[in-house]
């Protein structure tokens, strides 16, 4: 009985399963993820979770890809722009090279303007030759070479005329004065350029006094001790040419604030202050060309007040100064004045005064005609 009961009890017992031993956790293993609270979206899980880190990594990767793509596109556009620029420059360079070797070859060289020099000599000094390229010639160097070797040229301009012509334009310098310097005379133009070094004054060229030379080189501008004197020479020469006053034999600048001009070696023209020079010299021309002024008359013509007071004065060499006023409507009124020479001979009648400028109260009046066909200067001197 006992055995049967024991056997039944043993049969009713269930075997107890054995648990497998757990492996030790790895050192780098991640901690167990925490579940998100109920109702919270999966995207808002804690960044500590693997899902959050993967989402952040994806966003970061997408942003990097976008930045890289933008940079690559920008670089590609820049590269294309540089390539186009290089291609355009290459095409232009090739065009210029072709033009320099094939097109614009010079076949005509001519000198424009009158001068004392032979045109072929001028062309030779310019350095320009037929067959050269019109674009590549050095005009400045050619102009300088001509000016240095030909002092009597006031200006030289080398000009291109497409497709194949070169014009050398020249103007001749006019001698304006002779200045004594180191036992010789320096001949200068109105601009002060040294034209010639001569042993004696040139005929028909006035001698300039009161101009101390510091340096004088052929074809270069003269250097004076007083630079204002050179400016005064230029101003007087410009006014003289505009007024048409010829036969000037001397220009005295000893007193620069009151220069004088000697006309025909016999009449001294006083200019006073060096202002309104053109008008004053127009007045002098009107007086000197009048029929009342004898060709052999000597004396002093004062036009210093011609522009301010409308008066000019003539003082004969053997008489006293006299004055006569005129209006633009009445014309020239002259009085006869006689003077006895030391030998007792009588001088011919002379105009005692010529009104040479408009009065201050009548700015519109013109200079009265002082001769048969004398010059009539305007009031805008």
From TrEMBL:
The keyword Electron transport does not apply. Pfam families: POTRA_1 (PF08478). Residues 320-354 have a biased composition (Polar residues). InterPro entries: FtsQ_DivIB, POTRA, POTRA_FtsQ_type. Keywords: Cell cycle, Cell division, Cell membrane, Membrane, Transmembrane, Transmembrane helix. One of its GO terms (biological process) is cell division. It is found in: Membrane. GO terms for cellular component: plasma membrane. The chain crosses the membrane at residues 81-104. Residues 104-173 form the POTRA domain. Residues 355-368 have a biased composition (Low complexity). Residues 1-66, 317-381 are annotated as: Disordered. It comes from the Bacteria. Residues 1-19, 53-62 have a biased composition (Basic and acidic residues). PROSITE patterns: POTRA. This is POTRA domain protein, FtsQ-type. It comes from [Clostridium] leptum DSM 753. The lineage of its organism: Bacteria, Bacillati, Bacillota, Clostridia, Eubacteriales.
């Amino acid at each position: 009985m006992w055995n049967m009961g024991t056997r039944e009890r043993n049969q009713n017992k269930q075997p107890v399963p054995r648990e497998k031993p757990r492996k030790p956790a790895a050192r780098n293993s991640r901690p167990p993820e925490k579940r998100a609270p109920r109702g919270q979206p999966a995207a808002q899980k804690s960044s500590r979770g693997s899902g959050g880190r993967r989402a952040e990594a994806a966003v970061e990767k997408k942003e990097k890809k976008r930045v890289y793509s933008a940079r690559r596109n920008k670089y590609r556009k820049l590269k294309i722009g540089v390539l186009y620029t290089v291609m355009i420059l290459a095409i232009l360079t090739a065009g210029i090279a072709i033009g320099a070797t094939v097109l614009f070859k010079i076949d005509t060289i001519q000198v424009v303007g009158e001068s004392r020099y032979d045109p072929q000599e001028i062309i030779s000094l310019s350095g320009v030759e037929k067959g050269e390229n019109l674009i590549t010639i050095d005009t400045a160097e050619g102009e300088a070479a001509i000016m240095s070797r030909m002092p009597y040229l006031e200006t030289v301009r080398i000009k291109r005329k497409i497709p194949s012509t070169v014009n050398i334009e020249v103007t001749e310098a006019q001698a304006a004065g002779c200045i004594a310097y180191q036992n010789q005379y320096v001949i200068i133009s109105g601009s002060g350029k040294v034209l010639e070094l001569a042993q004696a004054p040139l005929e028909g060229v006035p001698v300039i006094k009161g101009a101390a030379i510091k340096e004088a080189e052929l074809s270069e501008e003269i250097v004076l001790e007083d630079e204002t004197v050179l400016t005064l020479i230029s101003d007087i020469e410009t006014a003289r040419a505009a007024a048409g006053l010829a036969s000037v034999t001397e220009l005295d600048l000893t007193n620069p604030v009151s220069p004088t001009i000697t006309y025909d070696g016999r009449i001294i023209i006083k200019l006073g202050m060096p202002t309104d020079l053109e008008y004053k010299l127009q007045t002098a021309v009107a007086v000197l060309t009048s029929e009342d002024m004898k060709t052999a008359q000597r004396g002093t013509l004062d036009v210093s007040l011609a522009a301010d007071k409308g008066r000019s004065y003539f003082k004969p060499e053997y008489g006293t100064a006299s004055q006569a006023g005129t209006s633009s409507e009445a014309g020239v009124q002259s009085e006869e004045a006689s003077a006895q020479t030391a030998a007792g001979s009588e001088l011919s009648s002379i105009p005692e005064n010529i009104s040479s400028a408009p009065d201050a109260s009548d700015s519109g009046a013109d200079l009265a005609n002082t001769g048969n066909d004398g010059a009539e200067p305007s009031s805008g001197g």
